[in-house]
Design goal:
alpha/beta, five-stranded parallel beta sheet, Rossmann fold, globular
């Protein structure tokens, strides 16, 4: 039986690279995406579908988690809270979605157990966690232990986070080396046609490309204004 890996793919650059690494390691890919009422849900889903097709995923899951909208408490899902555009601040930002990665990992673990997968890949990065507590390496290790305690004895799931210690520029370079189609990814927190270029996620992405000496293939609002 082929070795299998469940890959959580948001549609962003980090998770696309994480899944591409799993593919390079000759895992059969089971792609998982979550709709949770995020502002750019439609764009992220479209990117996920394109990335899963590029990776030739054996199976894809799109999981709807509507309850996040009831919880709110994050600028990504509550439109009454503005997405910050002034640069990354200290502390946990308003774009943090309460315990999102914990819930994602729990659902993905259930899928992994169903498919007898050996690994679960997630593209968490401590540098751009922006203070998100559920992106920390020690937290992911603790989740791995809890998942293996709460599943069948024959289930031995390893949670892989190959990007966790990388800088954004290193992620850009690694993506280019692996020929990850970065034009199919999306990072903006608040726009779907043209990336805003000013939210925390856009700033980190653009800075990563700048330091890597590469050009971001995504369309940005500023580029569109210059061309009109």
């Amino acid at each position: 039986m082929a070795k299998r890996a469940v890959c959580i793919i948001s549609g962003g650059m980090d998770s696309a690279l994480s899944a591409a690494i799993a593919k390079r390691e000759e895992y059969e890919i089971i792609a998982v995406h979550f709709n949770y009422g995020q502002r750019t849900q439609s764009k992220e889903l479209s990117c996920f579908e394109s990335i899963a097709a590029y990776l030739e995923a054996a199976q894809s899951y799109v999981i709807d988690l509507d309850f996040f909208k009831q919880i709110g408490a994050s600028a990504l899902i509550d439109r009454s809270i503005a997405v910050p555009t002034g640069g990354i601040a200290d502390g946990v930002p308003v774009t943090y979605v309460p315990f999102r990665n914990g819930i994602f990992l729990s659902v993905a673990a259930a899928i992994a157990e169903k498919h007898q997968a050996e690994a679960l890949f997630i593209g968490v990065v401590e540098e751009d966690s922006s203070g998100y507590p559920d992106c920390r390496e020690n937290y992911i290790h603790a989740m791995e232990q809890a998942i293996n305690l709460g599943t069948r004895d024959e289930t031995h799931l390893q949670i892989r986070m190959p990007l966790v210690a990388m800088s954004k520029s290193e992620i850009v370079k690694a993506s280019l080396d692996l020929e990850v189609p970065l034009e199919l990814t999306w990072s903006c927190y608040q726009a779907e046609e043209f990336a805003c270029g000013v939210c925390d996620s856009c700033r980190l992405r653009l800075r990563g490309f700048e330091l890597a000496g590469a050009k971001d293939p995504l369309p940005y609002i500023s580029d569109n204004l210059q061309s009109t």
